[in-house]
Amino acid sequence: MTLGSVPPKFKVNIDRDQCMDCGRCIENCSYGVYRREGDKILIESRKCTGCLRCVAMCPRDAITLTEKPIDYRSHPLWTREVREDIIKQARSGKIILSGMGNARDLPVVYDRLLLDACQVTNPSIDPLREPMELRTYIGKKPSKLKFKKTESGDVELETKLAPNLKLNTPIMIGHMSFGAISLNSQLSMAKAVTELGTYMGTGEGGLHKDLYPYQDHMIVQVASGRFGVNIDYLERGAAIEIKIGQGAKPGIGGHLPGEKVNEEVSRTRMIPVGSDAISPAPHHDIYSIEDLVQLIRSLKEATEWKKPVFVKIAAVHNVAPIAAGIARSSADAVVIDGFRGGTGAAPKVFRDNVGIPIEVAIASVDQKLREQGVRNEISIIASGGIRSSADLAKSIALGADAVNIGTAALVALGCRVCGNCYRNLCPWGIATQRPELVSRLDPERGAIQVSNLIKGWTYELSELMGAAGINSIESLRGNRDRLRGYMLDEQMLKILDVLPAGA
Amino acid sequence: MSHGNNSEIIDEYITLHSSLSIFRVIKMCGIIGFIDRTKSRMDGSSIKAALSLMNERGSGDGAGYAAYGIYPEYADYYALHVFFDNLGEPKKKVDELLQQLGEIVHQEEIPTTPQPGIKKVHIPWRYFFKPSEDLMEGKMASENDVVTYIVMEVNANVKGATICSSGKNMGVFKASGWPEDVANFYRIEDYKGYIWLGHNRYPTNSPGWWGGAHPFNLLNWSVVHNGEITSYGTNQRYVEGYGYKCSLFTDTEVVAYLFDLLGRQHGLSYEMVVKALAPPFWDEIDRMPAKEAELNKAVRLTYGSALMNGPFAIVVGTENGIVGFTDRIKLRPLVVGENGNRLYISSEEAAIRVLDPEVKNVYTPRAGEPIIGRFIE
Predict the structure, then answer these.
(1) Whole domain around residue B155: which residue ranges?
(2) In sequence order, what E strands does A302-368 have?
(3) Could you tell me if A160 lies within 8 Å of chain B, comparing CB atoms?
(4) Nearest-angstrom CA–CA distance, A353 and B293
(5) pLDDT at res. B24
(6) Among the listed ranges A56-70, A434-448, B139-153, which one has the minimum average pLDDT value?
(7) Active site residue B246
């Protein structure tokens, strides 16, 4: 090997004075960093991913981790990452795989948008003492209502409403499949959304029978691989989502490495054990917008027009006209996934380079739908890098009806964003199918953690709205007047349709 | 509320971001509305007295009146009240637009009497106009559509001209100044109307511009408003999707367009429009009988973007009567009084008592409850 080794990413150290030699680090590290030899715990730092499981489990705080203990000669262009990618590919001749979302240090638009509050000329509203309405309906809405008078002179509604999902808070959990994540992860989230009155996605991995009790709060997904799809599956979901693309890897299909396909995953997904599940890049029955329209209608017909159908697309350059096309179909919601969206496994070059930020995508889609008079035809669900209640509030003010979270929910389960999801070794029991790792995650406790997170954000959203003098979520939606841009360029402000701070 | 115009900064931003609203802010204002249900007309002197009583709610920076029934001789024509910066180029452009789209049967400067407290920064003008039927098709299928187009076009694109009212047999008279000065300036006691609206303004931003005073009008809809609409951005995006252009730098403008969209274009009753703008809370809807709950849910789902948030009390003048209502948690005062065929709605009971010392049945409506006075057929 003429290339030799690259410097380790982390240097792991045990403070031997503190260490009580309990061996929990050895038990907990699924990457094999620690081993016992004689009476000594030895460390192989090179295997460390920075998942922090050992640090979290060490009873004596004896473990320290140093990132990049040895660095390359610094260079602004030929960064460490660039050099290592080249070395990797020189060795393998392959596509570099990666996990989680876009890891490049690009400006975050959310961080340059500021929210408004009331002073003097109108009162802020105190959500502890006044009603605060976050209830959100996802689905088609009429653009106008018709009424008729009955013989007795009462006014009756003539317009029929399409089926809508009722959310108690505008936060849903996006699609992460059984396969990509463990059953215990899905169970944790399913219990949480059921308790809170919101929804989560199944991902394209089918619906495991243990999730049937929560099916009224689960949105089933039909992706290009059609894994796990049959009529029973479609009928169980509260809604159906057609996945065209995802923000982490626009233009290509899902990847589930064979390591993660065990008996249970194989049965739920209807594929052989140990086989890589590589979904086709396009749906082979959708080569144009009219084909999508047909699939939506077929799914609706199959489920007797009782369920909303969503279409998920990655935020690509042309996202606005694509969404407008979807709004003209019988789809009920468009899910837009920004370029920071997470994934279990994606080619790194896609994860870090393809697609556009969700903030910009929301703004341009909402604008386009309004220009074309079809905004009520479809709900906008935004996802891809939503980290906090502030991101949530800003997404809604830009024009989204609700958001999907993914990575944030996993972090609530223990994930430390190490980005090795595709290796089936997740020591937190999340992105793995190994029974001994999966059992580390208790669904009851996981449910409380996820539910706590969503509750916390919901309280914060109520407070932000109240401070802005708004007591119902409809009045925040598309209210860009309550946003100001800070250190954003003129062109970006124009696209976001937001004034600069001070104006 | 109001907002100012004509600062260079604003012009600059308009150029940069033509679709953006430039903000305002205001607060506190006195409002009053009157209707005689038998269409028996009253001159403007007592409304002036009532409004002046509420001077503590104003700052002398703006006041205005809307009067219905004042032009019986031109009742079939649209009365366009226009503020011209001068009678040169701006007027030429408005004349051209009107002649292109219809017929001007009469026009004149609105008679005024100079007042020490009012600087005549605009020349108030009125046209009596009939849109040409030949042009009514497609997007402009009716007289009202043509007139709406003219108002949007002039207010957004003709520099130095602002159409401040455009209904039939009615007009808006407003300027910067105290209510009594504005009334004397326009000789408001010379007009006799069966609906009167009045507004005493307390602007906090660029108070010089007459276009920022209330009432705000489109066609036969006139709005006086005390409050601040925290949902303005949402409401604005919503109406602009239907071709309205919010160009007057105040949140109140959007209320007139919401009434026109829901009340005229969508054909909703006044009760239903108020239900859309200030709907019941979900908790209340959940407790309603199934059919009623379904109706209210449909209104909230369909017209969520029309919901007005923030503190407000509003009186709207229409071709069939007046409508008063407040925000859903009643953060601004509104008082109603009745006497025979006369209905009064105001910020303060004292103002109603100035208008009619014999007033009976004075009460304060609940939050979001529509108070509607209609003509008796």
Answers:
(1) 8-374
(2) 309-314, 333-337, 346-347
(3) no
(4) 48
(5) 42
(6) B139-153
(7) no
Q: How far, CA to CA in Å, does A232 sit from each of A209, A211, A228, A348? A: 11, 13, 10, 36
CA distance B375 to A331: 46
Question: What is the spatial distance between Cα A3 and Cα B78, in angstroms, rounded to a whole number?
Answer: 85
B363 within domain boundaries: yes
Rounded distance, CA A165 to CA B374, Å? Answer: 40
Among A158-172, A439-453, A466-480, B43-57, which is the least confidently predicted range? B43-57
pLDDT for res A1: 57
Q: Do B331 and A123 touch (CB under 8 A)?
A: yes
Enter the tokens of residue B214.
């209330």
For residue B2, being part of any structural domain is answered with no
User: Residue B114 burial by CB count (10 A; 0-12/13-18/19+): exposed, middle or buried?
Assistant: exposed
Query: For chain A, what is the largest distance between any 2 Cα atoms, rounded to a whole number of angstroms?
Result: 92
Of A23-32, A255-264, A390-399, least confident by mean pLDDT is: A255-264
In a domain, B1, yes or no: no
Q: How far apart are CA A68 and CA A204, in angstroms?
A: 36
* CB of B12 less than 8 A from some CB of A: no
Question: For residue B54, what pLDDT band results from cuts at 50, 70 and 90?
Answer: confident
3-state helix/strand/coil string of B125-193: EEEEEEECHHHCECCECCHHHHHHHHHHHHHHHCCCEEEEECCECEEEEEECCCHHHHHHHHCHHHCEE
* CA dihedral for B257, B258, B260, B265, sign (positive or negative): positive
Q: How far apart are CA B248 and CA B215, in angstroms?
A: 12
Chain A interface mutation, best of B235, B292, B309, B332, highest count of A Cβ atoms under 10 Å: B309
Is the pLDDT score of B114 beyond 80? yes
Q: Which of A465, A497, A483 is nearest to A170 (CA)?
A: A465
A432-479: pLDDT as tens digits:
999 999 999 999 999 999 999 999 999 999 999 999 999 999 999 999
Selection from B166, B207, B171 nearest residue B64 by Cα: B171
At B207, list the tokens: 């108070």
Beta carbons within 8 Å of B85's beta carbon, 6+ residues apart: B121, B122, B123, B159, B160, B161
Question: CA nearest B27 in A: which residue?
Answer: A121
Contact A457, A171 (CB under 8 A): yes
Is the residue at B3 inside a domain?
A: no
Closest chain A residue to B298 measured between Cα atoms? A161
**Domain holding B236: CATH number?**
3.60.20.10
B301-334 tens-digit pLDDT: 999 999 999 999 999 999 999 999 999 999 999 9
Q: What is the ipTM of this complex?
A: 0.92
Report the half-sphere exposure of A184 (CA within 13 A, side-chain side).
Answer: 23
Cα–Cα dist B285/A133, whole Å: 12
- Cβ of residue B233 closer than 8 Å to a chain A Cβ: yes
Sheet of A113-115, strands arranged across: A113-115, A483-485, A499-500
**What domains are defined for chain A?**
10-70 (3.30.70.20), 170-463+475-500 (3.20.20.70)
Indicate the length of chain A as a whole number: 503
Confidence of residue B206 (pLDDT cuts 50, 70, 90): low
Domains: count for chain B: 1
Identify whether the C-beta of residue A363 lies closer than 8 Å to the C-beta of residue A497. yes
Size of interface A-B (CB pairs under 8 A): 143
Q: Which of B237, B291, B309 sits opposite A478 (nearest CB)?
A: B237
Q: How would DSSP label each residue in B307-352?
A: ---SSEEEEEE-SSEEEEEE-TT--S--EEEEETTEEEEES-HHHH
d(CA B357, CA A456): 55
Q: How far apart are CA B150 and CA A142, in angstroms?
A: 29
